[in-house]
Amino acid sequence: MLEISQLVKRYGHDEPVLKGLDLSVEGNSVVSIVGASGAGKSTLLRCINRLIEPTSGSIKLNGTELSTLKGQALRNARRRIGMVFQGFNLIDRLTVMENVLAGRLGYVTFLQAWRRRFPQKDIERAFQLMERVGIAQYANKRADELSGGERQRVGVVRALMQEPDILLADEPTASLDPVTSEQIMKLMRSLASELSLPVLINIHNVAQARAYTERIVGLRHGRLIFDGPPERFDKAALDEVYGGIEAPDETLAPTPAEENV
Question: What whole-number distance in Å separates Cα of residue 127 and Cα of residue 139?
Fold first, then answer.
């Protein structure tokens, strides 16, 4: 369970980006975070995994206070937080398998990592997950030979190889075409259910948030102003979250893709 209490993030003397945020995520729920650019969506995810340092407040994952961890304790905690990035963050010259196995770097010795010698059980798990998401046939291809959707699937599998307690996804579909982006959203929803894994997704596409997540959290100027099921995220809620400006996708009807993933 993720428990965030009174989270504040300030850069220098500027107005805080996050202003006393409270949020909890548990079970295998899939939660989307929506809001205009600058609302604090990406900052929130990066505070959770400590890619940036919170200014104050509490972030607990399964009872462990993340905001104060340092050194090896922080590295150990990060192993349990999977992250899927908008820009994929793959090493292009490495194969798909090598990129996937990078998710186990926190669990092997430096010598094993340097030699790229991973335990057989890790390799078997990698093949299982790649088969599940439809990329096993690309195991020996270089990452830069894949399409955007295939690259994002590699990123998802790499994160799952960490055996995470929670999966964070920062704009995972922003670089993809509409059909592929819906396939990725459907995939993450299915994996959350199969693995009993909570998933927290920062997303701009409101229609996809409504179609593929069970709960929508709306941020505006660093404050949580909406938290509820998709059916409650109506036009009034949309206007409140986006302050009357045009949202990236104001279509409120869900439009799930029919393709299998």
Answer: 8
Give kind and range of the element (H or E) at residue 193. Answer: helix 178-195
Please state, in angstroms and as integers, the Cα–Cα distance from residue 170 to each residue in 9, 16, 101, 203, following that order. 18, 20, 21, 7
Residue 40 near residue 222, CB atoms below 8 Å: yes
Q: 50-64, 97-111, 127-141, 156-170: which range is least confident on average? A: 97-111
The structure tokens listed for 53 are: 């340092």
Phi then psi dihedrals of residue 132, to 5 deg? -60, -40
Fold of 1-80+167-172+195-261: Rossmann fold (3.40.50)
The contacts of residue 73 (CB under 8 Å, 6+ apart) are none
Q: How is the chain split into domains, by residue range?
A: 1-80+167-172+195-261, 87-163
Angle at 165 between CA 49 and CA 35, to 5 degrees: 50
Q: Give the pLDDT confidence of 172-223 residue by residue, as tens digits.
A: 988 889 999 999 999 999 999 999 999 999 998 999 999 999 999 999 999 9
Strand partners, 3: 24, 60
